[in-house]
């Protein structure tokens, strides 16, 4: 049976779906995120300057009460939701397969696994074609096996995990149609829920194929979930 799929506009908006899923679990699931960015900033960092108030908001959020998650979500940004989910017991562990590792994480339960062969990020604007081969590979089995091994994430050991995809992870059409999708299919067979964030603005800024948009990527991904 395929896991349910929830699609949202911005990445932090997955939290309501995650909280609902958590209500049906005895223990918080792991989350495996695929993203261009790390999304590892502390919850409410951008909107609440005072540390004590940030802690109060975390304490007030209860995954069993949807209204408290919606309230919190309204004050979060798209790179703060993983810390929020960990701090509020929605998830137990966060593994992020990203294009780069910025070396920072708000919580020790976060693990970033980035491909070290990508060219330096500052070259993105001036020489985008240098990235194409790397970008094409991000759902290929050999690529995923290496990234999962580095993160020490075995899907069968985390059955029911959240498979979380930010579409700015997929910068070419070929990336969404891997030649060898074996590991992708293995991950999806173990996942309890799939969440996809469209992140249209970041996708527009980062894409290597100029025709890419979220609708086109989702159409190609339909064969998998």
Q: Spans with pLDDT under 50 lasting ≥5 residues?
A: none
**In order across it, which strands form the biggest sheet?**
1-6-5-2-3-4
Structural class: alpha/beta
Distance between the termini: 10 Å
Shape: globular
Determine the number of helices (DSSP H or I, runs of at least 4 residues): 9
In helices, the fraction of residues equals 25-40%
Largest sheet: 6 strands, parallel
Strand coverage percent: 15-25%
Number of strands: 6
List the helices and strands in order.
EHEHHHEEHHEHEHH
Q: Determine the mean pLDDT.
A: 92
Radius of gyration: 17 Å
Briefly say what this structure is.
The protein has 225 residues and is an alpha/beta fold.
Task: List the SSEs and their pairings.
Blueprint: E1 5-8, H1 15-22, E2 30-35, H2 51-60, H3 66-73, H4 81-87, E3 93-98, E4 110-114, H5 132-136, H6 141-151, E5 161-166, H7 182-190, E6 191-197, H8 200-206, H9 214-221
Search tags:
225 residues, six-stranded parallel β-sheet, 6 strands, 32% helix, 15% strand
What does this structure look like?
This protein is α/β, with parallel strands linked by helices. 32% of the residues lie in helices and 15% in strands. It contains nine helices and six strands, in the order E-H-E-H-H-H-E-E-H-H-E-H-E-H-H. A six-stranded parallel beta sheet has the order 1-6-5-2-3-4, with helices on both faces. Strand 5, helix 7 and strand 6 form a beta-alpha-beta unit. Helix 1 runs antiparallel to helix 3. It starts with a strand and ends with a helix. The model has no long low-confidence stretch (mean pLDDT 92).
């Amino acid at each position: 049976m395929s896991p349910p799929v929830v699609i949202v506009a911005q990445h932090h908006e997955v939290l309501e779906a995650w909280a609902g899923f958590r209500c049906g679990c005895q223990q918080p699931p792991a989350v495996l995120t695929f993203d261009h960015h790390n999304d590892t900033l502390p919850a409410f960092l951008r909107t609440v300057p005072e540390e004590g108030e940030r802690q109060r908001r975390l304490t007030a959020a209860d995954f069993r009460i949807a209204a408290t998650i919606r309230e919190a979500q309204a004050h979060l940004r798209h790179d703060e939701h993983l810390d929020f989910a960990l701090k509020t017991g929605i998830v137990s562990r966060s593994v992020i397969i990203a294009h780069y590792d910025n070396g920072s994480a708000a919580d020790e339960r976060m693990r970033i696994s980035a491909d070290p062969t990508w060219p330096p990020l500052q070259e993105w604007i001036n020489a985008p074609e240098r990235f194409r081969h790397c970008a094409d590979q991000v759902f290929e089995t050999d690529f995923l096996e290496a990234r999962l091994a580095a993160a020490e994430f075995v899907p069968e050991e985390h059955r029911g995990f959240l498979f979380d995809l930010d579409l700015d992870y997929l910068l070419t059409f070929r990336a969404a149609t891997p030649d060898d999708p074996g590991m992708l299919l293995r991950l999806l067979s173990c996942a309890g829920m799939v969440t996809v964030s469209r992140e249209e603005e970041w996708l527009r800024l980062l894409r290597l194929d100029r025709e890419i948009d979220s609708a086109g990527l989702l159409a190609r991904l339909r064969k998998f979930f």
